[in-house]
Amino acid sequence: MPKQIQSPAGPAHARILGVGGYRPSRVVTNEQICQVIDSTDEWITTRTGIKERRWATAEETVGMMSVSAAGKALAAAGIEPEQLGLVIISTVTHLAQTPSLAAIVANELGAVNAAAFDVSAACAGFCHGLALAQDAVRGGSAEYVLVIGVERLSDLTDMNDRSTAFIFGDGAGAAVVGPSDTPAIGPVVWGADGAQYEAIGQTFSWDALREQPELGFPALRMNGQQVFRWASYQMVPVAKKALEKAGITAEDLDAFIPHQANMRITDAMIKALKLPDNVPVARDIARTGNTSAASIPLAMERMLEEGEAPHGGLALLIGFGAGLVYAAQVVQLP
Ligand SMILES: CC(C)(COP(=O)(O)OP(=O)(O)OC[C@H]1O[C@@H](n2cnc3c(N)ncnc32)[C@H](O)[C@@H]1OP(=O)(O)O)[C@@H](O)C(=O)NCCC(=O)NCCS
User: Fold this and answer.
1) Structural contact between residues 198 and 45, judged by C-beta atoms closer than 8 angstroms
2) pLDDT > 70 fraction of the chain, expressed in percent and rounded
3) 36 C-alpha to center of ligand 1: Å?
4) Residue 278: active-site member
5) Which residue ranges form the domains of the chain, and what is each CATH number?
6) CA 152–ligand 1 middle distance (angstroms)
7) Selected catalytic residue, list 30, 123, 127, 128
């Protein structure tokens, strides 16, 4: 028999202590998008709910946006960078295979005691990061965890593609997760359906450039209708299960903060969930577009800042996207 070793142990519960966001300075309206593609402000607004989005300037890199959002989240949480034991960044637009963006950002923040790694779970990335953060805190691997969702989707957008040019935006959102006396992050409901991997992806992978350098730079492409149907119908049971696992019903919610993919997907979910009319719903997509991993923390920050959702209230989060992958949980808002 080998000598018995110690198991890690942490506090019984974890919570979001603070959130922060970064919105790039450049506002891009539907009219500007329609100068390139054959479309109209009316079509984009009615089909997606998007009126404008933010596209990063050259200086607004994924690293710069992450550090800025993280600084706000740390200040809101009252936590110093040295107290972080882990930095998780969810992104699909850190355009270097290695090192991770998280290692770079942790260094810039002065998070000298933190492990750091990136997660690739597309538009479900923030909810994946949050689940990992809560497990790390409760498991005793880290006392405080910084979760960042950041994207520069404009880098991977073909401005001439009529099926995607109007959807995506750039930005960063961050949350600090730490110990809690009471339950404040519910069980995650997550999964992956890799059989639908072709629904959203790159036009070609980086290694294709070795054979065909003339291909240029890849862009995101998606089968809009397939994604729309999947998200509108198959994500509802996932959301219901997250409520059930947290031990609450839709009536108990103080906010619904779904991934900001398309306002019509959000509306379909509200109806199917029978969400009471008085529950505020994140509609940040109108001014921010679809910012993938950044969309939920950005929407959460805006709802709290504008007094739309109450501090300490219960919010249902659900992220879904390329993979296809998804993750949902109920959280107590910071
Ligand atoms: C992308 C999306 C807005 C397209 O809307 P849609 O209603 O499915 O559009 P379709 O591709 O079926 O096209 C419908 C019509 O609009 C037209 N159309 C397509 N793109 C257009 C555009 N940019 N401007 C104007 N008309 C357009 C089509 O030509 C078609 O015309 P027709 O009926 O005369 O043939 C929608 O599918 C969607 O939001 N899907 C989910 C995407 C998403 O959330 N992705 C992120 C996942 S995390």
Assistant:
1) no
2) 100
3) 16
4) no
5) 13-180 (3.40.47.10), 189-332 (3.40.47.10)
6) 22
7) 123
